[in-house]
Amino acid sequence: MIKAIIFDVDGTLADTEEGHRVSFNKAFADAGLDWNWDAALYDKLLKVTGGKERIKYFISDFLTDFSKPADFDDFVKNLHAIKTQHYTTMIGNGNVPLRPGIKQLIHDAHAAGITLAIATTTTPENVSALLEVGLGKKWADLFAVNGCGDIVPHKKPAPDIYFWVLEKLGLKASDCIALEDSENGLHASLGAGIKTYITTNHYTRNHNFEGAAAVFDDLSDLTMFYQSAGLALPR
Ligand code: XBP
Ligand code: MG
């Protein structure tokens, strides 16, 4: 019997990556940088998870003439903090709804006594902004564990965040299922031994999901998902 469902956030709970991309570009403009991440470039940059890590990847692998400031880490951290401000404002305005079936799944599972958790690469502020709009002010009461951002040394595709969540839940990997959207996310959850279901989006549709228990376009048909995942939930 599944005791817990562990949710990825970006691309899974909501289709957020366009919001992230636009927020990165706003931060670059605020900083007087002529960098512009269009969708095609962002698709490549999504190979690296974590906004700070993604900025460093862009600088190292896509910029040739950028001379790093002395306090490079602070420079990146500050740029990312500005980006997070723009993102949380955008999300707070209700511009990015939860994906189909997500709100119903969360409430059905919580009502049935299934433990819920979050395992994401994004920041705690971004998670709060998204779920306060999507699930209401008391969203945090629905989740036993909220694993996000820099609390682990290595971000996805490393399994660290999933090991961290399992440890906090006090559950075995076999007691849980994970919901992810990307190849990096799948590698992370499988790396922790967790059976993983995928919902794709326009950035991840062509990823390699070998090892996933099942791949769905989205969870608009919760009955199909519940049957596939062996969840005895009302539909
Ligand atoms: C997706 C990510 C994040 C977001 C940007 O996280 O890799 O880095 O793209 O958010 P997940 P930040 O799919 O694990 O939820 O800038 O806050 O990292
Ligand atoms: Mg994701």
Short structural description:
With 235 residues, this protein is an alpha/beta fold.
Distance between the termini: 18 Å
User: CATH fold name of the largest domain, please?
Assistant: Rossmann fold
Main sheet attributes: strand count, strand direction, barrel closure: 6 strands, parallel
**Cα-based radius of gyration, to the nearest Å:** 18 Å
Q: Strand fraction band?
A: 5-15%
Summing up helix and strand content along with how strands pair, one would put the structural category as alpha/beta
Helix content: 40-55%
Bound small molecules, which ones? Answer: xylulose-1,5-bisphosphate, magnesium ion
Strand order of the largest sheet: 3-2-1-4-5-6
**Helix and strand element order:** EHHHHHEHEHEHEEH
Number of self-contained structural domains: 2
Overall shape? globular
How many runs of DSSP E, i.e. beta strands?
6
Give start-end ranges of low-pLDDT stretches: none
CATH homologous superfamily classification of the largest domain = HAD superfamily/HAD-like
The CATH architecture designation of the largest domain is 3-Layer(aba) Sandwich
Q: Whole-number average pLDDT?
A: 97
Q: Please report the number of helical segments.
A: 9
For the record, the CATH class of the largest domain is Alpha Beta
Your description of this structure?
The protein is of the alpha/beta class. The protein has 2 domains: 4-15 and 97-229, 3-Layer(aba) Sandwich (Rossmann fold); 17-92, DNA polymerase, domain 1, CATH 1.10.150.240. Helices cover 44% and strands 11% of the residues. It has helices spanning 17-30, 39-45, 51-62, 72-92, 102-111, 124-135, 160-169, 183-191, 222-229; strands at residues 4-7, 115-119, 145-147, 176-180, 195-199, 214-216. A 6-stranded parallel β-sheet has the order 3-2-1-4-5-6, with helices on both faces. α6 links the parallel β2 (115-119) and β3. Bound molecules: xylulose-1,5-bisphosphate and magnesium ion. Xylulose-1,5-bisphosphate is lined by residues 8-11, 17, 20, 49-51, 120-123, 126, 156, 182, 185.
